[in-house]
């Protein structure tokens, strides 16, 4: 037989789990709303540029497709990192995820190269500044 204390603990546990699940559901709904809003704004902007209108149903379909594709990308990224025995997603994981779309893959490759170049420039600048500081310190008594 279960004691009243263990029954109460079990009920409290279930209530906490339900609350946590409700909170996760609210977060998911807020995220979906944000994606829907952003897709709506993008469709509005594109529509203005091309003198076209997007129906609410089309915007909703694009938003849902976008949300699902992002979920697939996130799961793929996690799987690639886990397969490489890492807990952090790398640029190479992103490139692997984009490999099915030539345009997306090319875009990510270009951005990756731009970021790498900018990072190298920052490192070079820091080295120059650090080198100048050392030279200045050596001259001063």
TrEMBL record:
Q: Show the taxonomic lineage.
A: Eukaryota, Metazoa, Chordata, Craniata, Vertebrata
CDD domains named among the record's database cross-references: HFD_CENP-S (cd22919)
Enumerate the residue ranges of region (Disordered).
116-141
Q: Which PANTHER family match?
A: CENTROMERE PROTEIN S, CORTISTATIN
**Example of a GO biological process term:** DNA repair
Q: Which SUPFAM superfamilies match?
A: Histone-fold (SSF47113)
Regarding protein family, the annotation reads: Belongs to the TAF9 family. CENP-S/MHF1 subfamily.
Q: Which Gene3D superfamilies match?
A: Histone, subunit A
Keyword DNA damage recorded: yes
User: What GO molecular function terms would the record report?
Assistant: chromatin binding; DNA binding; protein heterodimerization activity
- State the UniProt keywords alphabetically: DNA damage, DNA repair, DNA-binding
Going by the entry's taxonomy, the superkingdom of the source organism is recorded as Eukaryota
| Any single Gene Ontology cellular-component annotation | FANCM-MHF complex
Q: Which InterPro entries match?
A: CENP-S/Mhf1, Histone-fold
User: Which Pfam families does the UniProt record give?
Assistant: CENP-S
Q: What is this protein called?
A: Centromere protein S
């Amino acid at each position: 037989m279960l004691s009243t204390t263990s029954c109460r603990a079990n009920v409290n546990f279930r209530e906490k789990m339900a609350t946590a699940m409700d909170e996760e559901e609210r977060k998911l709904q807020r995220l979906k709303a944000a994606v829907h809003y952003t897709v709506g704004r993008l469709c509005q902007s594109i529509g203005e540029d091309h003198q076209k209108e997007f129906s609410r149903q089309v915007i909703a379909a694009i938003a849902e497709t976008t949300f699902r594709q992002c979920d697939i990308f996130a799961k793929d990224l996690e799987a690639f990192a886990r397969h490489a025995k890492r807990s952090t997603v790398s640029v190479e994981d992103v490139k692997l995820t984009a490999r099915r779309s030539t345009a997306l893959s090319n875009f990510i490759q270009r951005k990756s190269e731009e970021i790498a170049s900018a990072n190298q420039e920052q490192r070079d600048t820091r080295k120059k500044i650090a080198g100048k500081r050392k030279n200045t310190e050596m001259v001063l008594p």
